[in-house]
Design goal:
InterPro entries: Phage_holin_3_6. Helices cover about 70% and strands about 0% of the residues. The chain has about 160 residues and is an all-alpha fold. The radius of gyration is 35 Å and the shape is rod-shaped.
């Protein structure tokens, strides 16, 4: 293992415009700008900051969407399985009712009655589902909050 070597003090290594041990505010002459950077450097820094900020917001939105889609996918799979099982329950229940009604009326009429009942159920479910889809509004609360903060930050940089 090598021991770190100590470098002698090099005054040329100091940042420009800042002598060692002093702050930029204390050494500036009256009328001299507080920020030694040129306008081009400031614009470049702001542009770089905004680019980084936008990339971070996009990454946050992607991560948030991925997490939400993962949860929704699992839930949809489980609901799909439940729907299939429910379909078989209703299918066999319908056949049972069909045979019960056959005791009192012709089988054709009992099948027509059951078909009508299922048509009504399908219509009600379709209308309810359509209403629920219209009311849905997918939100990305964390992304929205950070975008508001970023807008406030950008306004502060502008002034």
């Amino acid at each position: 293992m090598t021991q770190p070597t100590h470098q002698p003090f090099d005054p040329a290594a100091q940042p420009k415009g800042q002598p060692s041990g002093s702050s930029p505010q204390a050494d500036r002459a009256p009328g001299e700008p507080a920020d030694p950077r040129s306008l081009g450097e400031i614009v470049s820094d702001v542009t770089n900051d905004l680019t980084t900020l936008i990339k971070q917001e996009m990454d946050l939105a992607k991560a948030e969407m991925k997490e939400e889609f993962s949860k929704a996918g699992k839930g949809a799979g489980l609901l799909g399985g439940a729907g299939l099982a429910g379909y078989f329950v209703l299918f066999f229940l319908s056949w049972t009712v069909l045979f019960l009604l056959d005791n009192w009326m012709p089988i054709e009429l009992s099948a027509l009655i059951i078909t009508g009942v299922w048509a009504i159920v399908a219509g009600v479910l379709a209308l309810t589902g359509r209403k629920a889809l219209k009311e849905s509004n997918p939100q990305l609360p964390q992304t929205q909050q950070t975008l508001k903060e970023d807008a406030a930050w950008a306004r502060a940089q502008k002034s």
